Amino acid sequence: MAENNAAEKAVPKGILSGYKVLDCSIAMAGPFAAQRLGDLGADVIKIEPKTGEWQRHAPAGGIHGNKVNVSFLSLNRNKRSLAIDLKSEGGKEIIYELARQADVFIQNYRPGVAKRLGVDYETLSALNPGLVYISMSGFGEDGPYALRPGQDLLLQAMSGAMLSTGCDGEAPRAAGQYIVDAVTAYCAFEGVLAALLHRERTGEGQKVEVNMLDAIATIQMQELSVFTVGGKPQTRTAEPHAHVYIRAPYGTFATRDGYLALAMPDMKVLADVVNEPRLLDYAEERAGWEQRDEIFRLVRDALKDSTTADWFNRLNAAGIWCSPVYGYADLIADPQIAHNGTFVEYEHPTEGKVKTPGFPIRFSRTPSAVTRGAPLTGQHTEEVLRDFGFTDEQIGSFEADGAILRGEQP
Order of strands across the sheet with 322-324? Predict the structure, then answer.
């Protein structure tokens, strides 16, 4: 334990070092936002039930791990776990004392739950007027859909985005990522930083609301403006174009050994490189919209007889935007990924060597770092309570009353 503490102290302090974050969120969006704050050096305390947060019991891909499944592992590094019963009197005493000393509180409970638990903004801000309180929800805290489940696929379906890709007559396809969760996490992360900046200037905390529906709608700023301002409807055609608002050819095409993505090429240059003179018959701007399927088929037929690498080299040399279509194995092996240090590796006390995406933001003076892996349930309960001023006698009393769980150590 002493060796771990010494190693942590040797790591350069992150840009948010000194800020205390109480993370009462579950699943992906909230924990991901809180993890980003931890990556930047904040002391993130994951407040979870004594049975463990929901994500501990719902592993993506069915990958359970030894004691920590991969889903939880990926979203909860750089946090300490405090396992308490928020419905108990002792749990309320603890959370109120932590809130008095904290800088940020994050929750994504269903609307009304925070108030029933006594951790709503009004209650906590009365204890600490400088608190930045982040409330995350699926559809908003009130309104006709407030009680609907805020699940990623359902929000993708409602966002309109699924009908911007694919073929007419085929079922819409979801993104290959939990894109709504991720975008919502970054909105919350951005909201925390902006609210902390406001507090630095004024001393004033505030409530910040983020919901998944607004998050996925606003990242379609360009597409929705084409629709609302330009009046152009989403019109899918017979071939699988990558986006209804980009001229053909735009999408992925099968090659002899894989797939190649092609984006908005100069038609004359493309016709020359792929040796398909019929492409010259199509006026780039007009036909690229009105005859998308014909153009797609000509390009598809032209590319199928050579390899992805061959086409990439030839098209890239001609100044045409293109890329091989990667799987995860290809991505991890890519030299630019290695050069960027996109992935980080560290040792987890129960899960062994962990290789996972690292830090998308780089700071020259205050670098991000993994100082601790995802915690076991309640692993830091005793440590956190001591840090916030609770005595050994109080901690023993909380444990005896069932308000806390002193989790096992790795």
Answer: 250-254, 259-263, 322-324
The residue from 281, 303, 332 where one domain ends is 332
Task: Note whether 326 and 365 are same-domain residues.
Answer: no
Last-in-domain residue among 332, 367, 393: 332
Looking at the fold, whether 259 and 194 belong to one and the same domain comes out as no
pLDDT digits (tens, 9 = 90+) for 14-48: 999 999 999 999 999 999 999 999 999 999 999 99
C-alpha distances in Å from residue 246, one per residue of 100, 228, 288: 52, 17, 8
Residues 313 and 190 in one domain: no
Pairing of strands 404-405, 79-84: antiparallel
Alpha-carbon distances of 369 from 40, 116, 210, 359, 392, rounded to whole Å: 8, 37, 27, 8, 31
Residue from 274, 232, 227 nearest 253 by CA = 274
User: Domain tally for the chain?
Assistant: 2
Among 81, 76, 26, smallest CA distance to 405 is for 81
Q: Does 209 fall in a domain? A: yes
Strand partners, 43: 20
pLDDT at 12: 62
Distance CA 323, CA 309 (A): 9
Instruction: Looking at the structure, tell me whether residues 195 and 308 fall in a common domain.
Output: no
pLDDT of residue 364: 85
Structure tokens at 230: 């330009």
Which is it for strands 259-263 and 322-324: parallel, antiparallel or unpaired?
antiparallel
Whole-number Å distance between alpha carbons of 45 and 347 = 21
In a domain, 289, yes or no: yes
Alpha-carbon gap, residue 305 to 301, rounded angstroms: 8
Q: How far apart are CA 360 and CA 379, in angstroms?
A: 28
- pLDDT of 97 higher than 50: yes
Q: pTM of the prediction?
A: 0.90
Kindly tell me if the per-residue pLDDT of 7 is higher than 50: no
**Whether the predicted pLDDT of 241 surpasses 90:** yes
